[in-house]
Amino acid sequence: MTDLLAARTQMALSLGFHIVFAEIGVAMPLMMVLAEWRWLRTGDAAWLELAKRWAKGTAVLFAVGAVSGTVLSFELGLLWPGFMRFAGAIIGMPFSLEGFAFFTEAIFLGVYLYGWNHVGRRAHLAAGAIVAASGAASAIFVVMVNAWMNTPVGYQLAEGGRLVGIDPIAGMRSPAAFQQALHMLLAAYAATGMAVAGVHALMLLRGGSPAFHRRALAIALCVGAPAAALQPLSGDISARVVAHTQPVKLAALEGQWETERGAPLRIGGLPDARREETRWALQIPYGLSLLAFHDPRAEVRGLKSVPPDERPPVAVVHLAFQVMVACGTALALVALWTGWTVLRRRDLASRRRLLRALSAVAPLGFVATEAGWIVTEVGRQPWVVQGLLRTADAVTPMPGLVVPMTFFTLLYLGLGAVVVALMVSLVRETSPRVVPPISTSPAGIPEASA
Amino acid sequence: MSAFFASIGLPQIVAAVMLVALNAYVLTGGADFGGGVWDLLASGSRRDAQRTLVSHAIGPIWEANHVWLIVVIVVLFTAFPPVFATLGTVLHIPLSLMLVGIVLRGSAFVFRSYGARDDATQRRWGRVFAIASVITPLLLGVIVGAIVSGRVGRAAALLPANGGASTADFSTVYMASWLAAFPLMLGVMTLALFAFLAAVYLTVAAADAALREDFRRRALVAGVAALAASFGALALAHREAPWLSWALTETPIAALLQLVVALVALLALAALWTRRWRLARLAAALQVSLILWGWVPLQYPWMLPPLYTTHEAAAPRITLELLLWGLAGGSAILIPSLIYLFRTFAKSAAVR
Ligand code: HDD
Ligand code: HEM
Ligand code: HEM
């Protein structure tokens, strides 16, 4: 394994790990706040119990998100010093704003998790709302950085390829920023909401406490289902922006080799970089031109329009894109089914087929997220900053990068295993039919020996 | 002196803000690490009570405290990209190890709080939490020592400016830059200082007199250890960082600073000795902050000696200006929030 490949793998792994916790950190606070708000409105203690249970899990996931995010911010220098030297001054702005979003998030999460008995009810709810808002804000800011990497603006190019005359504010409003931030936020709500809904649907199917899981299901679906239903629309916007700003990426995600008018949409299939063709795909005539440019005769640029060393690994990107769209379609269908059931005023918790479908699609939002990021990041290769800086020129000169990569892989595997085990045991606790009395300790922190 | 003020510009202001954030991290996050040290060293009949006190003191606020570190990093890479890039390159190994410490500490702490209640699980995560709390400050000190002694800058000078293969061998650049007696001694000093801070804070937080005495004894030991380590570092600087040693002993401002630090350190110990808890807390915090700010006259105008001055490493003016605006706006939200957080839980600690 070359050093460059090791660095890319370590970065991909760290981001792929962090993003799961980040999405949960964006969406869970919203769900907790909704549950708590229901409690304040109705006085029904079951809602409070739900908020507290979710808070327990969120505390663990948030901490893992915070430490894995810390790793990332260091890794920008550990693995990509060339990138930071090149672009630090222009992308630093959204990162700094993100830093403040983290701060408010962490402060009010502390108040929320540990403050049940220390602050008033309204203050507590407000703390939760601030956490939810700053989580969303931090996601938007960090995605702005990534959007700049995809569609860099706000600079002039000096000799030697340096950036001069930079404008960090313009950099934050790069062409990809809006659609990426929208798609990312929806992804966070869809993935987390549908996953939580799936877990509680499964518990209902297994005969868990209906009073508890019914409420949990309702809130999770309120957050997850609308987002999941909207995600294909937002994905369409994304694809069109990519078509205009990153034609090579679009060609890679569609497996389009030739530049042609009226390009077909390919479903499935395997791009073969050596033979420069995509085989075994189901082709829908004019589909791609229609989707990407809303014009069946529009010209779509193919991969062959750039030399081979400027093409991303096509097979990976194409496959990942298919996975994302497949997951997104399944989630959207189940979300629409749920909406239809609600519209007809049927009781969700007694529709066993729907519950089964919900638990079947539970992991797909996270799968789609990972796949989507692979599309974005691998699809940009060989560039770390599209058209300006190659990944190979950004990597650290330090040799032996396989060692840290292996090390962090093992660390994350271990952490992931512990987190999963913990979550399973937290969910199991909620399974008994009789909900145990609410503990008096703040958010279940052990009052050890006190 | 007037030459000093004349040289102050935006880069220096941003660097000062960064140091303020680092100061906040050391006083808050540093004490959280110190708490982990006392978890590891909990002993005697009140061992469990000691651990509980530590975990209560850390509980609600560690994540907020931790963000100070993120702020330092973000300001560093925004305002001084080449310094961040150089540190990331040359100090890859200690930084990665420190990250492992940060990851394990943070996650073990929540795993212990929320995991299975059986003794074996508790002890396992408690152990991981405590060991990571020792390793991380040690590495942090090593990293600072490597920077101030000029080792990082010299190692980086061996790297070719624009990529390409390095002319120096691996161990000269990536190991010798930090693996030496002076940085290690600074690591020990940092660890002792963090443990000292934590113990002093815990004397104030403890509701129970016996527990308070436990931490008083611990604070005294750690305070003396920190003093010893700083003398050790001085002695080693003479051999390993002659330039630093010169700055420490020959410049009047450094001599003055050392005198003040020494006085404040003695004040902290005396206050502990006479059981004036709040005074001790104030003096300890002041002592640690002064040590940190003492870094400035020592290496001014260098940010990464002898490679970059603060001025040379700085990002374009517009970035610095925007960053300062952003920091000012952010602080307007942040500071009231932080006060609210500390008030909320300080009240509850008093009730308990
Ligand atoms: C719940 C998760 C999820 C779901 C259901 C979908 N996506 Fe997605 N997609 C993501 C989560 C995601 C993401 C959050 O992982 C990405 C990576 C970068 C980004 O901005 O969002 C992404 C990127 C991404 C990109 C690349 C954007 C870029 O590189 O700038 C395109 C073209 C699409 N998506 C298109 C779609 C379409 C047509 C979908 C139809 C069903 C879809 N996505 C569903
Ligand atoms: C929004 C913030 C993000 C930023 C600033 C960012 C930045 C980077 C950087 C600097 C690299 C290394 C250079 C390169 O390979 O292009 C990289 C690679 C990568 N990132 Fe991201 N990334 C972000 C989000 C994500 C997320 C959430 C994922 C989730 C899976 C991800 C997946 C990857 C992958 C797979 C690579 C390796 C690509 C390759 O080398 O083939 N990224 N990213
Ligand atoms: C290169 C890319 C990234 C970097 C450097 C980064 C950095 C960080 C850091 C330092 C933290 C810890 C903050 C704390 O201590 O509270 C964090 C947490 C977080 N990050 Fe990231 N991050 C990246 C990618 C992303 C992406 C793509 C998202 C999009 C959703 C995201 C959303 C969050 C959120 C919501 C948190 C709060 C903690 C949590 O909920 O787990 N981050 N990140």
Describe the structure.
The complex is a heterodimer of chains A (450) and B (352). Helix content of chain A is 69%, strand content 6%. In chain A, the strands form 5 sheets. Chain A has a two-stranded antiparallel ribbon. A two-stranded antiparallel sheet of chain A has the order 3-8. In chain A, 56% of the residues are buried. Chain A is mainly alpha-helical and 450 residues long. Chain B has 16 helices and 2 strands. A two-stranded antiparallel sheet of chain B has the order 1-2. In chain B, strand 1 and strand 2 form a beta hairpin. In chain B, helix 4 (62-79) runs antiparallel to helix 16, helix 5 packs across helix 8 (151-157) and helix 6 packs antiparallel against helix 7. The mean pLDDT of chain B is 87. The interface between A and B is large, with 76 and 75 residues. The site of CIS-heme D hydroxychlorin gamma-spirolactone has 28 residues of chain A, from helix 6, helix 7, helix 10 and helix 12. One protoporphyrin IX containing FE binds next to helix 1, helix 4 and helix 12 of chain A.
Concise account of the structure shown:
The complex is a heterodimer of chains A (450) and B (352). By secondary structure, chain A is mainly α. Chain A is 69% helix and 6% strand.
